[in-house]
Amino acid sequence: MDFFTDFKAINKVVFKKTRESYVKNLLLIPMFGLYVAVYVVAFAFLMMTLGQLGSAGGFLASMITWFFSCYLISDYLTHLQQAISGFKFKFKDVGKSYMNYFMPLLTATAVPRIVVFLFSTLTRIYIPYYWIIIFYVIYATFEIVYQKHIDHLEMFAYGHQFLKENWLHWLIINAIHGTGIGIFIYLITRFVITPLALSMSALPGLLITAVTALTFAVLIGIPLLFYFIYRGYIFKILSVSSRRKREYMRNIYGN
After folding, report:
1. Residue-number span of the structural domain to which 237 is assigned
2. Tens-digit pLDDT profile for the chain (255 aa)?
3. C-alpha angle 23/162/106, rounded to 5°?
4. Which of 30, 32, 82, 191 would bridge with 87, disulfide CB 3.0–4.6 Å?
5. From CA 166, how far away is CA 31, in angstroms rounded?
6. How far is residue 26's CA from residue 135's CA, in Å, rounded to a whole number?
């Protein structure tokens, strides 16, 4: 079985499962918007208060929001894990699982930043923050956290091994979805978020931040939720099989 046959077979199955899980868990879109808005408002508030106390206050504000973001991401990853397991999201589950992946997320979010900081300090070469986001996308860091339950530095070793074995399947999927989402972000920022912020210019800054963050997150959550679930299913297949194994199973059971 050549690569394209394998690629087509995997994505045919994954697209069907993703569509079913997506429709069943549409409420995760407004929940994503709410989580992002709460984080943005908390960060803005802390920077307006603690951040005004000098470098120590700014550092403390950053640490608090970092921990808070890990709590929010941990809870959301639990709902994603449930989605790719065939379950339906329920509001009663919100906030019950914020510690499930908290410790691994501290490692997952700290190590790349520390590496970038040390590299920039030693070489005097500035690395834009979006490269850290690209790292998370390519290395399937969050999928490793909530599907493999790998903690500490082992998650990065596993991510390297996973990428080495599945780089073509994984990168094509992320390139296609990433390009589409990037275009979508540009469009809603230009034609929705910017006009919305300008129309509320007379309101308090924190309120403008909250409304624009919530609107942006809910809109971007529409394609992002599909992308998150799609990645979850793709990772689930690629991490437990090889092309040879998939070919063997297809020869036995057919398409």
Report:
1. 3-250
2. 577 888 888 888 899 999 999 999 999 999 999 999 999 999 989 988 888 888 888 889 889 999 999 999 999 999 999 999 988 888 777 777 788 899 999 999 999 988 888 888 888 888 888 889 889 989 999 999 999 988 888 999 999 999 998 998 899 999 999 999 999 999 999 999 999 988 988 888 788 888 999 999 999 999 999 999 999 999 999 988 776 666 655 555 455
3. 75
4. 82
5. 31
6. 27
Residue 70 and residue 35 in contact, taking contact as beta carbons nearer than 8 Å:
no
* Angle between helical axes of 154-188 and 102-123 (0-180°, round to 10): 80
Q: What is the distance between the alpha carbons of residues 213 and 27, in angstroms, rounded to a whole number?
A: 18
CB atoms near residue 146 (< 10 Å): 23
Q: Cite the DSSP H helix spans in 84-191.
A: 102-123, 130-138, 141-143, 154-188
Cα 116 from Cα 39, distance rounded (Å): 23
How far apart are the C-alpha atoms of 154 and 96, rounded to whole Å? 27
Measure the CA angle with vertex 53, ends 50 and 56; round to 5°.
Answer: 85
How far is residue 210's CA from residue 216's CA, in Å, rounded to a whole number? 10
Number of domains present in the structure of the chain: 1
- 255 inside domain: no
The residue length of the chain stands at: 255
